[in-house]
Amino acid sequence: MSIISNEEKNLLDDETRLIVSGHNTKEMLGFVNIPPFRGSTVVYANAADCLAHRNRYTYGRRGNPTMDALNEVWSELEGAAGSVVCPSGASACTTALLSCLKAGDHLLMVDSVYRPTRAFCDNILTRYGIETTYYDPMIGAGIEALVRPNTRAIFMESPGSQTFEVQDVPAIVAVAKKHSITTLIDNTWATGLLFRPLDHGVDISINAATKYPSGHSDVLIGMIAANKALFPAVKATHGDLGLYLGPDDIFLVLRGLRTMPLRLREQGANALKIAKALEGNPLVRRVLHPALPSCPGHAFFKRDFKGASGLFAIVLAADTDKEVETFLDSLKLFGMGYSWGGYESLAVPFDCTEYRSATEFRPGGRAVRLNIGLESAKDLLADLEAGLKAMEKVR
Ligand SMILES: *Cc1c(COP(=O)(O)O)cnc(C)c1O
Fold first, then answer.
1. CATH assignment of 259-393, given 3.90.1150.10, 3.30.1360.120, 3.30.1440.10, 3.10.290.10?
2. Least buried of 59, 85, 116, 149, by fewest C-beta within 10 Å?
C-alpha cells in the first residue's frame, strides 16, 4: 500500500475518506486503529524544549494522537480548517457561542433550537451581558430586520430536532456576511454526510456526535468544526475553558465514523419509508419529515441536502394523555428515551408550545418523535401500526 496524498484524498467519496483517514499504521507498529492514548503528563527531551513547550504533544488536555485522529477525520467530513472535541454536544454548542460573543453583544437564535442551547442563552449568556433574540426558523432573508448594530452571531439549527423546519441557510448567511456577523449551525441531524454547512458559507458547524457518529448510544461527545477565520477563536476558547474528553470515548466515535455512511443510509431510507406509510394512516394527523413536501422548508431541504437521516416526528390523531400513553406503552420495538442516532429505535412524546417565544407550535394533536434504528422497516411499521390500533381503542 502506498500513502494517499491530501490532494488525492479530496477526490474520494465521503465513504472512502471516512475509511482511509485518521490512521497512522506506520507509527502504530502496523496496527490498523490508533489506540486510546491515556495520559496527562507528556515528558520533554530536555530543559530547553520543556521551557519552550517544544514537543509534538505538550499536555494531555491539549491533545493526543487519538484526539488528533478524530479531528483529522472530522475536519475532512465538514470541509473545515480545524475541529475540536467537546465532552458533550451541549458543551459544543455553548463553547462555540462563547468563542464568538462578548459582553454587550446581541445574538440571533433560532426559535426551534435544541432546548439546552436555549437554556444556555437564557441562563448564562444573560448573566454576562449578552442579549438573545429568538427568530422564526422560516425567516430566511427577513432576518435582516432583526439585525442590530451589536448583533455579532446568528445561530441556526436545521432541521429543528423536534419540529423539523428546514432553514434557508444561504439566505441567512448572505445577510450575516453583509453585516460581518458570525454564523453558527447545529448540524446534528444531517452530519457532514448529508449537509456541509461550511460549503454554504457558515463559519462554525456543531454536531452532537453523541448521535449518528457514535451511533451506539454509549458515548456523549460534541464536535465543533470551523473555517479558517473562526478556528483560532474556537481553539483558544476551547483551551481556556479547560475542556477534555477521555480517549476511550474518542476511540469509540472514531470506530463509529467508519460505518456511519452505511448506518445513515439504512436508517434514513427506513425512516422515509415509515414516514410515508404513516402519512397515509388516518390515526396520524401529521408527519414532520424534511423529505415530505408538507414539511416547512422542504424546498430548502431538496435544494441543499444530499438526503435525510432517521429522525422525524408524527402528530397523533389523539388529544388525551391516555391515548398517547396507550400508544407508547404498547410499542415493543421502540424504547422511550431521549437522545437519538443509535442503532435502536426510540419514541418520545414532546410539547414545545410552552417554551417557544418567536413562533407558535400548534401541531393539532399529540406529538411523538421517532428515532428509526437499524431494525427492519417492516417490523418497525408493524409495531407502530399495532400501537396506533391500541390507541384507537381507548378513545
Ligand atoms: C442531543 C443534541 C445536542 C446535545 O448533545 P449531548 O451530547 O446530549 O449534550 C445538541 N443538539 C442537538 C440537535 C441534539 O439533538
1. 3.90.1150.10
2. 149
